[in-house]
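TICKET: design request
STATUS: open
ATTACHED STRUCTURE:
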């Protein structure tokens, strides 16, 4: 990184736990409580994923994180023609509340915190989680976790959207309403810079674009009648940790300070509502299929950056993820990486180890200023939805991705084992489950469910949902929850909403 700008910094004199939270959101940080170790997992069937969850919990994981397969993310049941070839491949297939029950069988939902990486169908998966909690005897107020529910970044970088932006944002705001009114210990959204970073965004773009989206969500919630100080303390964020150690540490510090200032300036939010809490995942796009054991070191450095930067929870990638779904052995090693940081390095014993460093403080100032400039550019242009419509985010990320790849190919950016220190060793063989067999079993389950449920109840609840979807101010979570309780499938519920709202055309 060019260091010509490095001069004596104007350091933030606030203490950890005090606004603007540059030095951390709690006075004692990890001395009082370690970050949540939340490993991401999803394997074909609910039973397989349940087994992985149990293994990770036994190994010391402190929070669950669910990866869903592509049909689940896109609102298709496993027996739909659009699901062909994709069932269980990118995560667990969830077609009904019965699948959700299998996923968490034997895991008491009042004892664990669950993160669900789901967006377009987030309302349906949350309803299923609530229904499983009801059947376990766990009241809403005792359910803990986070729903990703960040649809704007899907239009920008990831692509798992279903409906046009306006009805999609209506669903997001209704989830805010539902969780807030029920006083759930559940973060209704995890506003994600991670996926934009993985698509090629720079560290500055990751912050600027994430906060531009976050401001849009806050305004939508206000329009739905919610008070900022009531829902904003439950907003959570999701960032990447890459291998440029000091840049990542400074990015996390800048993020806390910038979000605090934006919330104060634009919404006059309370300190609690302006306090940034975030989950971090190490950089999936930095993992290499060549010399995969190098990824162990990359992940350790990235995890250290997240911890030094003050993350609230952390997922460490497995070294073999560039080749296939992680094995139990590699997933355990990824978890052990966090545990080594927590218990053997001494880093968590210091509240803000790099506070006062001239380099880190100045870099924090620089990243905050550049990210704020991006936020204001989006704001002046009418906000995130309009920026998406004119391709502003998409073009900027595509340009930075191109520049990064060009640097790698030209050798200006060294990637060990890829463009330097290449040994010519063959790629490791990939073992994969029998996805055809898995998909057939899942299709059979859906058919059996449809054969034994109360068809009349399903029809009534889906009809009520359709009526609510057509009424612009009607609540949506309650009719979705009723449909889920009646064993309507994820695809059937999504089809009702598709029939009313249509599907988004990326053109």
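STATUS: resolved
RESOLUTION: sequence designed for all positions
ATTACHED SEQUENCE:
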């Amino acid at each position: 990184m060019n260091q010509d700008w490095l001069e004596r910094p104007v350091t933030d004199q606030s203490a950890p736990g005090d606004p603007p939270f540059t030095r951390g959101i709690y006075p004692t940080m990890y001395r009082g409580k370690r970050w949540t170790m939340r490993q991401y997992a999803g394997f074909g069937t609910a039973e397989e994923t349940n087994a992985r969850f149990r293994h990770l919990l036994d190994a010391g994981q402190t929070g669950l994180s669910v990866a869903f397969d592509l049909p689940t993310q896109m609102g298709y049941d496993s027996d739909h023609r659009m699901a062909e070839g994709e069932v269980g491949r990118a995560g667990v297939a969830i077609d009904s509340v019965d699948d959700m029950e299998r996923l968490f069988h034997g895991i008491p939902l009042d004892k664990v915190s669950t993160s669900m990486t789901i967006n377009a169908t987030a309302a349906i998966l949350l309803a299923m989680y609530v229904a499983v909690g009801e059947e376990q005897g766990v009241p809403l107020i005792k359910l803990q976790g986070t729903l990703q529910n960040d649809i704007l970044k899907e239009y920008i970088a990831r692509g798992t959207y279903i409906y046009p932006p306006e009805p999609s944002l209506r669903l997001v705001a209704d989830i805010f309403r539902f969780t807030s009114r029920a006083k759930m210990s559940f973060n209704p959204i995890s506003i994600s810079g991670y996926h934009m970073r993985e698509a090629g965004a720079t560290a500055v773009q990751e912050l600027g674009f994430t906060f531009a989206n976050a401001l849009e969500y806050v305004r939508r919630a206000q329009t739905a009648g919610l008070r900022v100080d009531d829902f904003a303390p439950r907003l959570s964020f999701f960032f990447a940790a890459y291998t440029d150690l000091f840049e990542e540490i400074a990015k996390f510090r800048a993020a806390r300070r910038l979000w605090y200032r934006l919330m104060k300036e634009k919404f006059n939010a309370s300190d609690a509502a302006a306090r940034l809490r975030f989950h971090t995942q190490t950089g999936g796009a930095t993992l290499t299929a060549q010399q995969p054991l190098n990824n162990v070191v990359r992940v350790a450095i990235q995890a250290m950056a997240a911890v030094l930067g003050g993350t609230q929870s952390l997922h460490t990638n497995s070294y073999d993820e560039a080749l296939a779904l992680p094995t139990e052995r590699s997933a355990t090693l990824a978890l052990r990486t966090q545990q080594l940081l927590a218990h053997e390095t001494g880093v968590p014993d210091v509240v803000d180890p790099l506070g006062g460093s001239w380099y880190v403080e100045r870099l924090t100032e620089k990243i905050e200023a550049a990210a704020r400039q991006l936020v204001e550019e989006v704001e002046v242009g009418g906000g995130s939805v309009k920026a998406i419509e004119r391709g502003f985010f998409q073009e900027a990320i595509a340009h930075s991705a191109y520049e990064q790849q060009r640097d790698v190919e030209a050798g200006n950016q060294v990637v060990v084992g890829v463009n330097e220190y290449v040994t010519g060793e063959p790629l490791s063989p990939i073992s994969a489950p029998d996805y055809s067999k898995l998909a057939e079993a899942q299709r059979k389950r859906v058919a059996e469910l449809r054969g034994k449920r109360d068809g009349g109840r399903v029809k009534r609840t889906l009809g009520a949902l359709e009526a609510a979807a057509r009424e612009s101010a009607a609540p949506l979570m309650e009719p979705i929850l009723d449909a889920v309780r009646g064993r309507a499938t994820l695809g059937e519920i999504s089809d009702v909403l598709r029939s009313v709202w249509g599907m988004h055309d990326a053109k």
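CLOSING REMARK: The chain is about 50% helix and 10% strand. The longest helix spans residues 245-267.
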